[in-house]
Structures are given as C-alpha cells and as structure tokens.
Write a structure and sequence with these properties.
heterodimer, A: 111 residues, mainly alpha, elongated, B: 135 residues, 3 helical TM bundles of succinate and fumarate reductases, two-stranded antiparallel sheet, 4 helices, 2 strands
Chain lengths: 111, 135
Amino acid sequence: MNHRKTLEPMWWGLFSAGGVVAAFLIPIHIVLLGLAIPLGWLPGSAEIFQSWIVRLYLFVLISLPLYHWAHRFSFTMSDLGLRPIRKPLAILCYGSAIAGTVVTAWVLLRI
Amino acid sequence: MTRNRPDPSLLFHPRMPANWWLRKRTYFLFIVREFTSVFIAAYLIVFLVQLYQLGNGPGAYQAFMGKFASPGWLGFHAVALAFAIYHSLTWFYTTSIVIPLRIGAMVAPRYVFTLLNVAVWLAVSAAILAIYLIW
C-alpha cells in the first residue's frame, strides 16, 4: 500500500469552496455589473469598491472560483484526451490559479 | 486506518475515442457542466480588468464601463450568465447527492435539498443587490 502524503485534499477543498462561491454569488454579479448597469437599469457608482470589507469579499469571490476552474479544467481536458500530459497540465492550471490570486490581491490593493 | 490511493502508474485507464462525449446526451451535459468553470473564470478575468481600470482613476473606469454597453460585451455577459446559472443549478443538485439531507431517519428527496439551495441562492442574490443599491 502506498502511503505517500499528497496535496490532493487541499486542491479538492479549494475546488469545492470555489464551486460554492461561484454557485451562490457569481450570477448576481454578472447581472449587476455586466447587464443591469451597462443597460442603464441601475446607477453605476464605483464608490462601493473603496470599502475594505467589500475588497476582502471580492478577493474571496474572484480567487476561489479560479481554483474551481483549475481543478475542473485540468480533469476535463484529461478526460478529453490529454491524459498523457496530465501532470504539466495540472501544474499549468493550478499555477494559473495561484498567479490569479496574487494578481487579484494586487488589483484590489491599488484601487 | 488511512488508505491512500495506489501508484497512478499502476492504474488502468481504458482508451476512449476523442468524441466519446458526443455519443450520449448525458455525456455532453457532463462536459457542458465542467466547462461552465471556463466561462466563470473568463468573466472573473474581465471583472479583474474592470477593477484594474478603477485603480487607474475614475476616467479610465468610466471609459471601460462604457464599452460594456456594446452588443459584443452584452452578449459575452449574457452567455457567461447562462453558464453561471447552469453551474449553480448543477452544483446544488450534485451537492444533494454528495450530502443527502436527513430528517431524522428519513433521507429527503434530492429535489428538496436542491430547491432549498435555490431559495438561499435567490435570497443571497437579492441581499447583494440591496446592499449595492443602499450603499
């Protein structure tokens, strides 16, 4: 029996957390910022983004679903025929999510 | 006892034709479900660019937001929204399988758990909208 410790449970945890955040929170943000404000249904004030609580919330809202994407995309591409390059694909996907987390923090700090 | 998985190199993986996911409706819907994450990630990158423009000043932000009224951007957001909603619904349904809702000794039907999640989702969405409007 192989008893190697892996980081896999952590990636599954981040996948799950990102899935929950995306399911409950993403649609209303697309409706609000992508449709209702551009169509002029609602006023487009950016004042809300000055709040630190809102920025902390946005950090969670943006970063966690990136890990959700990394997990799903890497597994799905593997299922669609990229199994031979599973390892580098996973490194690329999770690496992008980590880079995305750093960029998100930077963008939110400079508002 | 903790039992880890065996060495991946020892696992058997059947060879699948490249178009296996087009052979059955359920396979196709599975791939659509998995690809919702791509559209959600694409939306989040656009959102990040929007926040980056906000950091460049009110003028840059207003100019960027002005582009969102174009048919192309409205179409992008409409498509992203459709996939995001599909993710929400499939996520709630999948969760009802992973975490069965037990009431005493009885396991509630899956649709009960799914509908409860939909109700919470709508309430949370309404709350976010209200917070934005009264800010």
